[in-house]
């Protein structure tokens, strides 16, 4: 899916090997009995077994609690924690330049021109404030002490967590004409805080440079320039007139990227809609302050069928939404209905437009900044402040109402697009009823082509979506019927990026897929009803197979996105070659493996190239692709939702020119990619 030497060659979603996929047990594990075991006073469990973790030791013991995981995402979370501290200085009006450097020695450095972390003695601990911030969890200036009015980092764990999970950290603070510096090793001070005259006159700010600990990040220590770049671009949009710079010293010569946007989120919406046909001339933009909180919104409709709304609270992408998003959606629906009736577009007997209708083709960025935000957990994916719903709704109602009155031509096009969506929605409702599975036990509603498994516990089941009836027949013969289901699809499914839901649900193969999975679709989607813990896409290793896999990925991303985000979607890796000499057989999954096998087994070995799954016997398909002990599965994971949206729209959408430009720019790279 991606070329590790060329991140720009990424075509779809980042795909990582599924955890344990290569070494899975041959059968899904059975759940342990929940029957209580008799207690025993002699089992050795006493006060001696109770541990109290001091300092930063809890972070090193359970890093996932603080950064999500210790893989690529967790590694970059460290970078974001440091950057967010610098951005908080910008939110306080004390910083307008932030520079990130990816060092050739594996380090990452973040420097800003803010006020600089305090270095005077902290009265409560008797240690320098810098050392307290670096070594104590929940220590910082964001707990109402007057250091920050608005902040994204609320838990006071950012710097200390980075320190705990780094092999080495160096901090420099520039204040009052002096440089204060200190080093740390795996969370502990390695030197005392030292101070000397600053040779750079007038400099101020903070520099944090850290080297991730290989004992924590065992799978990867390599920062991805593109990942960091995307985050800096996003922050530059959200914080207008703040200059972000990325310097990658691992390249020769060093690569520099700069991000600065005077237009803020209005420029962000234009960026998201680039290459798409837009319904209105320019985005509607509003920025208001309500009771000490800031509400900023930009809205622009395009001619696609998908909704793309990004909601932020204190620069944090609240992917699960929250009160601010609820207020925006309610005000958008009410305002468009009010205008449509006032303008006579909606008649007295016409039904109101639904929220789903008015959000078709909508691109919007909503950014709120609060003094006391209430997030859910350290990952901060949902905003809980109830007052924001009313504040955002009031701002949107006033601003959107004014915009519609002042721009009647744009307003008419937006309402007419919503009316078209309403008619399509009515047709989709009728079609959707045909694919809703009423109960897990009503097997009569399942598609006839589905070869279901006998196991009824979804956690123990997996389904293979197989290209073609021939391959489907082979897979049915080779599978383990107890927990593996097979659903063959005939030909290429509809490109859902170019169709509304009513057309999508009229497509037989898509209806069969939705029915088999059991989740429903659209407003009735319910992930808890997913009938299989693993959904595996299994297509031929040729161009047609790649296209079918891409069409399926597009469908899942646009209509069953939660299946991806919850970690249920996988891609099978059938072998490309079978190399045989005598009784020795080698299965090869890449050209490199094939060349190595031929070299090892000699030129007299027999070679078979598998262009289709149907060319294998049932036993061969089990041995290479279905058997959990031997198979390789790739897990579909989302590293950057904004980029994923853009790529799907650019390569699968209606507009031809963006796709043509992409193909011309990446033709040589794409030719060598296995997608």
Descriptive notes:
Strands 2, 3, 4, 5, 6, 7, 8, 9 and 10 form a nine-stranded mixed β-sheet that branches. The protein has a six-stranded mixed β-sheet with strand order 1-23-19-18-16-17, sandwiched between helices. The longest helix has 26 residues, at 408-433. Mean pLDDT is 84; it is low at 1-40, 142-147, 437-444 and 671-675. Helix content is 34%, strand content 19%.
Short synopsis of the structure:
34% of the residues lie in helices and 19% in strands. By secondary structure, the protein is an alpha+beta fold.
Question: What are its keywords?
Answer:
675 residues; alpha+beta; Heat Shock Protein 90; Ribosomal Protein S5, domain 2; 6-stranded mixed sheet; 20 helices
